[in-house]
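Slide 14.
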Amino acid sequence: MRREKQRATPTPLRRWWATRTAGMAERWATDGGCRASLSLLLTALTLAFLGVCLVASVMMAHLIAPQWFAVDDHIATNGLHQSADYPIVPLTPYPAPPDLTPIAVATSAESAPTAIPSPTPVPIASPTPAYFGVPTPPGATVGPAPVCPALTGQPTLTGRSVQDGVVPAPLVGGCPALLVIAAPTQTNAPISGMLTFGTLDPAGCTIYLNGTTDSGGNATLRFTVPGTDCFRGSVTTSGTLTVGGDSSANPSFPAQGG
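Slide 15: predicted structure.
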């Protein structure tokens, strides 16, 4: 009598898994390209996992037994690799140096050496000092003295609530000049400012202005324009000019160098 084997009834979990993977199983059975792609992906993941395991094993082995699994660290300095491990070279003992202290020699009056006269020193003429000149400070005029115009006339005032202008206009390098300020709302107010001429040496070619307005808010400040060591040709000054708490004055003025 043949006993028929009854198939086991699948569990709900197996039925859920079979339902979810039915499409993939059918594609795996019928699509060769899908099988090749999945095989390649599984191979890559396996190799990556093995690599991670190998690196982790080496690190653990180095921590557990560093004398067997030593790692030679190197430090790159200016393109050269230098070992981070600095071995200690055993010192070789050297014999002590001989005592070179001079030994005193007994002398007598009969055997005293005759003194040898020292040669007369020959005077040596000192070399003539060379003259290299004194460097010209920034802002000083180089070359012939400039022809400076007279400080006359009324300047053209520009700006907003604080207006200002210069005489002469344009300013002439190496010559005196006047800065005229008209600020009716800033009476008896302090004036502070700075004007920079050119870009060759901004620190050395900057002049600083200080003063106070009168009871009508007017002021005239006298200054000297830096020379051709700061600028040549035509430039426009830059900087700041504050009267009281108002900085709306125009700090840009044309200047002409040699």
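Speaker note: Confidence is low (pLDDT under 50) at residues 74-89, 126-142.
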